[in-house]
Amino acid sequence: MILVLAKIAVKKGKSNELLDISKALIRKSRIEDGCISYNLYSDVENEDLFVMVEYWQDEKALNEHFETIHFKNFGVEISDVLAKDIDLDKYDLGELL
Amino acid sequence: MILVLAKIAVKKGKSNELLDISKALIRKSRIEDGCISYNLYSDVENEDLFVMVEYWQDEKALNEHFETIHFKNFGVEISDVLAKDIDLDKYDLGELL
């Protein structure tokens, strides 16, 4: 199982735009074969900071996710909303028990 | 390094109460020796769901955290706000590089 924590920082006042842009990504990612869960959270102390918490069955599922149209579209649409590059931490949690 | 994802579900309408109760916990946890980061996030699709994302230097630091007064106080204060037990995932990410 793979855990991904994607930390997202948006420009001042752009949080609603991020929420709109993320809806399609979240909906379509959740129905991908190897997706266990895919949730977006907002930092309670700073409305411009978010984390996407994603659990994937394995590395293959995650790599396929990166190749999907909805993921690539997200990358394009979010580019002018981001304050800096998305900080993606990826952890291999071993076999899915 | 230890990563903790503590998923918190509160009763309907109790999210502000959780935010208040968490302030002291967050402030005091961040100044503990082995605490790398300690942040509370709110689920953008459900205001009653939260995740505390915590990075600890090692298991010893986390165990000491569980014994602190501010952690134990949090457990007492949050008990009647919780919709169900906190779901705590703990991952050993190996040596802090």
UniProtKB/TrEMBL annotation, chains A, B:
Alphabetic keyword roster: Monooxygenase, Oxidoreductase
Give any GO molecular function from the UniProt entry.
monooxygenase activity
One Pfam family from the UniProt entry? ABM
Per the record's keyword annotation, is Oxidoreductase included, yes or no?
yes
Determine the domain of life of the protein's source: Archaea
ABM domain residues: 2-91
This chain's protein is named: Putative monooxygenase YcnE
